[in-house]
Records
---
Amino acid sequence: MKRVDHVGFSEKFIADEKHIKFHDKRLWDLRSSRDVEVHGIPEWEELRRLASGIKEHTLTHLADYLEQFERNATANGVVVHWAKDAEEHNRIVHEILSARNATVLVKSKSMLTEECEMRPYLEERGIAVVETDLGEQIQQLDDQLPSHIVVPAVHKLATDVAKTFSKTMGTDPNESRIPVLCEAQRQRTRPLILNAHAGMTGCNFAVAETGGITVCTNEGNADLSANVPSLHIASIGIEKLIPKLEHLGVFIRMLSRNALGSPITQYTSHFRGPRKGGEMHFILVDNGRSERLGMEDFWYSLKCIRCGACMNTCPVYRRSSGLSYGGVYSGPIGAIINPTFDLKKYSSLPFASTMNGSCTNVCPVKINIHEQIYKWRQIIAEKNELPFIKKESMKIAGKVLANPKLYRAAIKAADAAVAKLPRVVLYNPLNEWGKKREVPEAPKETFHEWYAKRKKK
Ligand code: SF4
């Protein structure tokens, strides 16, 4: 599989000044609102410890909790299916739909169904799939992956959406007022929901004790998808389990505060059984999760509650956008999850990080994201998956940094070169750094020179 060209994709995004400024600001605003909310909860760190502990306990007893969940859900009248991978998940969904002659499926946002590439699978088999989340529908109409796990079309300006809607819905391409665009989407989607044969949701939390699931949305579209058609299918990653109903409070208090800086999602809906005369199916999906659970350095990533805060805070993500990561999951969480699916394809992603640790600091379930990124870098180097230039330059850097005399000589030579060499020698197509940056003027003396002088005095 070809390596994702994160730098190349980012370059395209960065070249567009208007988009990059908007994207950076929009996500930093989310991060700032998150800080305000979090600082209003004095026991925030206690909540993080609890959330992390609950997730670690569940993951280390996962088989037991999954069986308990299945027993309780079945007792509630839900049909529970198990899917070992994406292919099996898609096949199960198709079988449920085709057995009932269902040809229109409305669904709310679910990263798991994106991961399984379910939409194209069903569409190839004659089933129309309608994304009902506004951002996700914009991405569907543009045939793009979500660029963020909470706000899927965050990289787009309202003017971009106006163009997409005009091409696909026949609206005015110059009308980019947000309420008007939302109304257009609403008018298009409502009849589809009302006439759909089946509805689908993802799942934020699956409670073993009750056999019920909780879905959090801000648009109410999950509730419409689940409740209007009489058939509801929910796709559930097996890591979404929590043991008890009382644990929900910990996560619900954190999720929206950390994601969007709002105290709670508009709709926190609980589904426990089919309505009278209806059907409810839960599909428990593994798709590589059991394998990840067995990875000593990476199993903590299964604690993720998909709040997106690590993306909002990441300076690389904010400036390169989610689509540059070339996978379903982007940003810091994508950099640690995607390589578990395909190391070669996603080997550039762990290098898309400044390693500032901000992702780890904001993570509500205390995932050691930057440490996992560092670990992936080591594995990628050991497995010889680094591009040639990076590999060779790292070798030279390693030698220089490991030898203080060589390091000081290199610094002196670099200072002299920056001061004296003609500009074209430093800023040319071979120098990636010089493309977007000016090398700062060197100080008159280095710290070591200053320190040595001071010591002598
Ligand atoms: S890794 Fe942590 S911060 Fe990032 S999306 Fe998951 S829970 Fe949120």
---
Amino acid sequence: MAPTREQAWETLTKYTQSEALRRHALAVEASTASYARRFAEDEEQWRVVALLHDFDYEIHPTLDEHPQDGAPILREEGYPEEVIEAVLSHAEHLGLPRDTPLKKALFACDELSGFVHACGLVRPDGIDTLESKSVRKKLKHPSFAAGVHRDEVYAGAELLGIELDEHVRNVIEALRQIAPQLGLRTATTAAS
Ligand SMILES: [Fe+2]
Ligand SMILES: [Fe+2]
């Protein structure tokens, strides 16, 4: 049986208590799912992989463990190899081929979702009026959201074959849909 999004959420929240990490997973899920719809791919499977990509980060916070040591846990939890392989492919240091649309989309959405999320958090109306231009400008300021690897953001868009400007717009739109779950203010909450 193919794993469901709910199962992946259960696995994620079993190993991850941090609100920030759960929100990161939700942001990457929303962005990746938007590309699944765009490419008419298996949205449920893409959501599963996106939710799980950093599921072990809290228990394996260093790259000598994450995400490779998470793989046996996912196997034990009954996830198919296809899902596990896609999860592992997001890690630069493992050097695995990103040879499917899912692997490309996950890589392209991972760092950028985190970055757009950070952009939304510093704005009074969250992500409501955030534009691609402002995100791209902030990308050039290394001190803003310094943990986000810019080279991976640029490489991701290229791998996906989508212009950076459009990719940023897609990720903004995807995150906007779930703004409250990401702790982002919206026009309604900002006014109150
Ligand atoms: Fe990761
Ligand atoms: Fe991530």
